[in-house]
Amino acid sequence: MLENIPPDEVLFLDIETVPQQPSYDNLDDAFKHLWEKKSTYFRKPDENPGDVYNRAGIYAEFGKIICISTGYLYLNNGDYCFRVKSYHGNDEKALLIEFADMVNTFVAKKNIFLCAHNGKEFDFPYIARRLLVNGIALPKVLEVAGKKPWEVNFIDTLELWKFGDHKHYTSLELLTKIFGIQSPKDDIDGSMVADVYWKEKNLERIVKYCEKDVLAIVQLFRRYRGEELIKLENCRTVTVY
To answer: Does domain 2-20+62-237 match CATH 3.30.420.10?
Structure first.
């Protein structure tokens, strides 16, 4: 499959999400009740809803996006280069509008595939849901209702590694290790994002972590295609922090 996809038609991405509030106590009564009901599915008997509120960022109904890092490949003097840009901030609607505008511009020029690790289960539906919550029209590439599987332009590096083994989960960190790719987890990992955002208030640190994930995903994509890794000197970040 991958050999039939032009590399310059793939938009690689990763998102970082956090709970909508710094703590369970900041929720209004209605959301407290709804989180209590939601968390019954994974709370331990000795835990209350507040104890597990740090997991709220995983769910689009209780979380928000604070960063979408994107990247694409392009040829320069015969070598593939990689350009990375992040859409980030405390105003989720503003960053989603910027992201949607970029995707729509991309689609207007060429066919487009979205590529992420575990994207089909997390990144793609999460982005679509938060776009709708914020009253933003879905880019066509995210309009998947009623489409046949082969009509959906999603590439999932986790799914590709499964080879049909649906019970198997392999982290991006592990795959980068076995394929000889620089680890994106050399500073923080996903479990730390909420605290870095709400307690440290260090969004820039999160954005840089998200961008490392995107670079790891494109390198994994290259490995799956039997290609050499992109040289680090050929990777350019244009994000304004």
So the answer is: yes
Chain segment 226-239, per-residue pLDDT in tens: 999 999 889 988 88
DSSP state of 231: P
Give the mean model confidence (pLDDT) for residues 182-211.
91
Q: How far apart are CA 211 and CA 199, in angstroms?
A: 21
Residue 49 carries which side chain, given as an amino acid letter?
A: P
Q: What Rg value do the Cα atoms of the chain yield, rounded? A: 18
Q: Global pTM?
A: 0.95
Spatial contact of 181 and 216, defined as CB atoms under 8 Å apart: yes
Considering only CA atoms, which of 38, 36, 34 is closest in space to residue 48?
36
- Would you mind telling me the total number of residues written for the chain in this entry? 241
Domains in the chain: boundaries: 2-20+62-237
Spatial CB neighbours of 221, under 8 Å, sequence gap ≥ 6: 2, 10, 12, 115, 155, 157
DSSP code for 81: E
